[in-house]
Design a protein that fits this description.
heterodimer, A: mainly alpha, 13 helices, about 0% strand, globular, B: alpha+beta, D-Maltodextrin-Binding Protein, domain 2, Dipeptide-binding Protein, domain 1, seven-stranded mixed beta sheet, six-stranded mixed beta sheet, about 30% helix
Chain lengths: ~325, ~550
């Protein structure tokens, strides 16, 4: 197991290296020049030239790449072109906000998906299954931004129960922090909950037809034991794969939710740095997201072996 | 206490009888009402105001006059002089000024005892260093464009006196010093993420994309100001979130609220105020091909004039700006010395006139597909718009629909800031030539001295992206030179009139509507102000 872990960690290096090349080249393909942003509106050509030179953007792209990657290799992600902040400091500031939101979204998804998925599979043709079918369809059809706006309208503007935007750190005021995170977490979690519910239900239904479940039934085991001990445990393996992928998507792709709720996370940082062509921040953020996804996949693989002892690496 | 005292007095008077009683009751009621009014209008000191903005500031360089940087300018920094809304010059860091007889030297006497936020005293050498920064292309940002042609440099006369020298008489010299905020020279290297100024608020913290925090400058030179303890600027990348935050009280005020939300916010009981009329102007820049490029439809003045007749300004103000605008054919507001009433209706909206002009230019729909053509080429134009200002795209949609009615097709390209810049201004690769047919944009500072329009906009007589080879219409540069180098009002008016005549005839810049900056605040927030350039001012603001 440890050997497998080490092997996977070493595999991360070429993945990150390849990613860095792709990230760097793709970002440079986007038209635009950060010097124009820095110079202010309608600058003169000589001003743009002076700032481009100062930023080192006049050097050949390959040269720029090697400078950047060698700095990254030594742990220096550089500084933001626009605001001069160390990129790593910026990412660290935003990463925890995103992680907090992603975990909350995940909790919301699990709170919905686990009971709905399980009960709709074992209580066929009942009211729960009908409700689940409607929820799954709506959850996947409703765009995130629309749901977010609706929630704000209902709970922040009309009922005034919850704040419409912003973030308070848990360490400062846990109660207020929870109030602030409820709406974004629901917005983020509903779509994933619908995906997970459908996946879990299908998985359980499939496992219910397996011979070992029939054997357990023939042995006279109670339905509760069969479901908990034999069905759910086996259904969790594909479920966790999807869960891992969805969590990865939360980490890298909650831009819409973060924008609607003014959540100061990685998504907004990414969006802002795209708008300003802040190359070091953009490259650093994407690289960190890629790294997180690779680690997440590794974690998912390791969790398999805990759930199913037959899986050995 | 006062209430108790008045109550006792009233009770004692009740004990007495007579005619005097009625008069005293009236007096008592008057006193109580006066007391209540005076207490309710007393300016409260202290508290924190959270102000929402439509985007994060870029940096703290006061010479970068990007719209996003506006919230920062008047909190951290101060200028030597400022204008009131009637454009009268008021003292700030300078208490006295004098222009020499030739109009080539401006001497400022500086306010004594003003301290930078780091505790050091503000003095004449600081002004000189700021001017040196402005004169350098790499660090002068937008102020460089204003000063590069005329300003030579500055010289310290004594600790509190500084003289600024100009190459020629410079009538717009005060505009430069209204825009030029003084930054502590020791902060020049760290302006990317912090500031040291002399303004009413001191920088405390900036978390990019999250919040910018200022605290009260206790040593501010203006007695009793600022009233607030703290101001926090919070950027909102989603405009819907900004409005919701304002409606629900997460923020106390907001700057540059989009026009489309004006009604929604006022209906929700939020106060929405209009900034300085004429401070900003929505306009459409027309880019004729350069002399060394293949000639196209916009090379023909008649086609450009047809475009000028195709702008339905009223529809644009009603539908794209939701009534928050004011149609205008000329770029200068009524209070400007360059406003001439005879030109105010020069280009009325007339698709018939536009169609006739296109006919006479030889553009006709020969194949009956609804789009005019000439020499086998279709009359298809493209316009760029600014994504961050969605109303520019809405304006382009209205124009497209009107142009379609006279057989012209228009493609619309909304661009983000970093892509818009190179297209709008041209690049080294395009030899400084802009790459668009039309550009729905906005310009500013033309409301002060009219020369403001010609230092940092596509209409500037140097490095112009629409005339990169210097191929300006006849008389344009000469008249601008004249208008910008004399204090003689009559001469200036004459020159500006000629420039406008040329601009209207050439149709390269089409004014559309005034752009109003909307400042919104909750009822409990009072006295939020703004400069003539619509930069928010918080030093007088207070909260109930």
């Amino acid at each position: 197991m440890f050997k497998y872990f080490l092997k996977r960690i070493f595999q991360v290096i070429p993945v990150l290296l390849l990613s860095s090349v792709i990230i760097f080249s793709l970002i440079r393909l986007i038209p635009g020049n950060p010097a124009l942003i820095l110079a202010g509106p309608d600058p003169l050509p000589e001003q743009v030239e002076a700032i481009t030179k100062e930023l080192g953007l006049d050097k050949p792209i390959i040269f720029q790449y090697f400078i950047w990657i060698s700095n990254v290799a030594s742990g220096d992600f550089g500084h933001s072109i626009i605001n001069g902040y160390p990129v790593f400091k910026l990412i660290k500031l935003k990463f925890f906000a995103t992680l907090e939101l992603a975990l909350s979204g995940l909790i919301v998804s699990l709170l919905i998906a686990l009971p709905l998925g399980i009960f709709s599979a074992i209580k066929r043709n009942g009211i729960i299954e009908k409700f689940t079918t409607i929820f799954v369809a709506l959850g996947q059809a409703i765009p995130t931004f629309w749901l977010g706006i609706l929630l704000v309208l209902a709970f922040a503007i009309k009922l005034r129960w919850l704040p419409s935007s912003g973030r308070v750190e848990f360490s400062q005021n846990p109660v207020l922090a929870i109030k602030f995170i409820i709406l974004p977490a629901i917005t983020l979690g509903v779509y994933t909950a619908s995906v997970l519910t459908r996946f879990l239900k299908t998985s359980i239904l499939e496992i219910l037809t397996f011979d070992y479940v029939l054997t357990a039934q023939a042995k006279g085991l109670s339905e509760r034991v069969i479901i908990l001990k034999h069905v759910i445990k086996n259904a969790l393996i594909p479920f966790i794969t999807v869960l891992g992928l969805q969590f990865g998507a939360f980490l890298g792709g909650s831009v819409v939710t973060e924008s609607i709720f003014g959540w100061p996370g990685l998504g907004r940082l990414l969006l802002q740095s795209i708008h300003t062509r802040d190359y070091p921040v953009l490259q650093g953020t994407i690289l960190v997201i890629v790294f997180s996804l690779v680690l997440l996949n590794l974690a998912v693989d390791l969790i398999y072996s805990f759930i199913d002892p037959k899986i050995r690496y | 206490m006062q209430m108790i005292f008045l109550g006792i007095l009233f009770f004692k008077l009740l004990m007495k009888k007579g005619v005097i009683m009625t008069k005293l009751i009236k007096l008592f009621i008057t006193l109580v009402v006066f007391f209540m009014i005076s207490t309710s209008y007393a300016q409260n000191k202290g508290g924190t105001l959270v102000v929402g903005t439509t985007g994060d500031i870029l940096n703290f360089d006061a010479f970068n006059l990007a719209f996003l940087n506006y919230p920062n300018l008047h909190q951290c920094y101060d200028s030597l002089i400022t204008y009131d809304s009637e454009l009268r010059i008021l003292p700030r860091l300078a208490t006295f000024w004098r222009v020499n007889d030739e109009g080539t030297e401006l001497t400022f006497s500086l306010r004594k005892g003003v301290k930078w936020h780091n505790g050091r005293e503000f003095e004449a050498s600081d002004v000189v260093k700021n001017i040196e920064k402005a004169l350098s292309p790499g660090s002068g940002h937008n102020v460089h464009g204003m000063v590069k042609k005329t300003m030579i440099g500055a010289e310290v006369i004594d600790k509190y006196t500084v003289a600024i020298k100009f190459r020629a008489p410079t009538p717009n010299m005060f505009d430069m010093f209204n825009a030029m905020r003084m930054m502590a020279p020791e902060s020049f290297d760290s302006l990317k993420n912090k500031c040291i100024g002399t303004g009413p608020f001191k920088f405390e913290e900036w978390i990019p994309g999250d919040q910018l925090v200022y605290v009260k400058n206790k040593d501010y030179w203006q007695p009793g100001r600022p009233l607030l303890d703290k101001v926090i600027f919070k950027p909102f990348s989603d405009l819907e979130a900004l409005n919701s935050a304002l409606e629900t009280g997460i923020i106390g005020a907001a700057v540059a609220v989009p026009p489309k939300d004006y009604k929604r916010l006022t209906d929700a009981g939020v106060n929405v105020l209009f900034g300085q009329t004429g401070a900003l102007l929505y306009s459409i820049t027309v880019n004729p091909p350069d002399p060394d490029q293949p000639q196209g439809p916009l090379s023909d003045k008649k086609v450009r004039q047809a475009l000028c007749h195709s702008i339905d300004r009223n529809a644009i103000v009603d539908q794209a700006l939701f009534g928050v605008g004011g149609p205008t054919v000329v770029p200068f507001p009524t209070y400007s010395i360059a406003h001439f009433t005879e030109y105010a209706n020069h280009y009325g909206f007339s698709l018939d006139k536009a169609a006739k002009l296109l006919d006479s230019a030889g553009w006709k729909d020969s194949d009956g597909d609804g789009i005019r053509d000439k020499g086998g080429k279709k009359l298809v134009l493209s316009t760029i718009t600014i994504q961050a200002y969605p109303e520019t795209t809405d304006m382009a949609q209205i124009l497209k629909s009107d142009l379609n009615r006279i057989g012209v097709d228009l493609n619309i390209e909304p661009l983000d800031g970093a892509t818009y810049g190179p297209r709008h201004l041209g690049t080294k690769e395009t030899n400084g030539s802009a790459t668009f047919d039309l550009d729905v944009t906005f310009v500013g500072r033309q409301h002060l001295d009219p020369m403001g329009l010609f230092d940092n906009s596509p209409y500037r007589p140097f490095n112009s992206p629409i005339f990169p080879r210097g191929n300006f219409p006849d008389g344009y540069e000469q008249n601008l030179e004249k208008a910008g180098s004399t204090f003689d009002i009559k001469e200036r008016k004459k020159a500006f009139k000629k420039v406008q005549e040329i601009m209207l005839d050439a149709c390269v810049g089409i004014p559309v509507s005034w752009k109003y900056t909307l400042f919104a605040h909750q009822n409990k927030v009072h006295d939020i102000g703004w400069t003539v350039n619509d930069e928010v001012r918080i030093e007088n603001a207070w909260i109930d």
